[in-house]
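Input record (Table S2, row 333):
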Amino acid sequence: MSEPLKVLVTGAAGQIAYSLVISIAKGDVFGADQPVHLVLLDIPPMKAVLDGVVMELMDCALPLLTEITPLVEEAPAFKDIDVACLVGAMPRKEGMERKDLLAANVKIFKSQGNSLEKYAKKTVKVVVVGNPANTNAFIAKKYAPSIPAENFSCLTRLDQNRGQAQIASRLGVPNKNVSNVIIWGNHSSTQFPDVSQAKVVTSAGVKSVREAVGDDDWLNNAFITTVQKRGAAVIAARKLSSAMSAAKATCDHLRDWFMGTKEGTFTSMGIVSDGSYGIPAGLVYSFPVTIAKDGSYKIVQDIPISDFARQKMDATKKELEEERDMACSVCEG
Ligand code: NAD
Ligand code: LMR
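Output record (nicotinamide-adenine-dinucleotide complex):
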């Protein structure tokens, strides 16, 4: 057995973490041979709830979970961590857009960026889940200058999973038969769920999703808006934001980042742009990536971009530039 991975989950007394920590601790993310030391961070008023989560995790008697450290202070929580799942932040309520959370949440990520810089391993891999996820990841990276940009990501896998599931349901095939749905841009209602490269395994062989669905009007309209607005639809129904599906998507994101993507497939992650596809370098934007077994990733290049796609990719880029500028003025103000 290898050394335990030290995995930090923030917002550990919250909804998403309640589903996330069990999957990580069971081996669903880092594999059945990889022991895990879970560090659970929340804020002081949540200490009692956090202790309850620790009791439950203990009571699962999991073979791979070597240690559980509940904390309500940042400095010890970020010490020597290998992985940071930055979930802790306020969720939006009905009628809010994710960027409405910016002023309240972005300062958390300034502080946690500073803590990553001071205390974490330089190899730490960071996934930001707390909203507005892309801009929070941008701020965390800004305040952790000595950690490589490629170690920062934000979650858009939930949007990808939503898109994949919508297509599978429309075609009446299992979810696993659908691949390569791309999410471009922001984890917000301006995101662009793109099926131009998506494939589906049918009884007649592998087809492009566009050919298999055979309804461009649905793919260019209802499909896109359903995925863009799914978070709001869940909030309207549950009166709480998505949690089980967000935790599952976080696990998918991390598993692919640690184990690599399958031959011929790619996945979408919010990452620090290198300027590909005309997206300004430094912006945290969701791109399709292939990931090698060592965890290094490459943005999938040379995807043909139609005028329709360009307009949508630019609209979500513009929103991210506005969020970035607002976040910087909150952090510097
Ligand atoms: P929640 O309110 O149930 O839990 C959030 C937890 O974070 C709370 O326990 C809170 O005390 C804690 N917290 C607040 N500030 C903290 C800090 N500075 N350090 C550590 N912990 C802190 O919310 P939730 O439903 O778990 O959602 C968490 C975040 O994830 C929200 O911002 C939500 O909008 C976002 N989210 C993102 C996605 C995505 O796909 N990117 C999906 C769903 C939800
Ligand atoms: C989601 O996509 O479900 C989350 O980001 C929660 C939200 O505010 O939509």
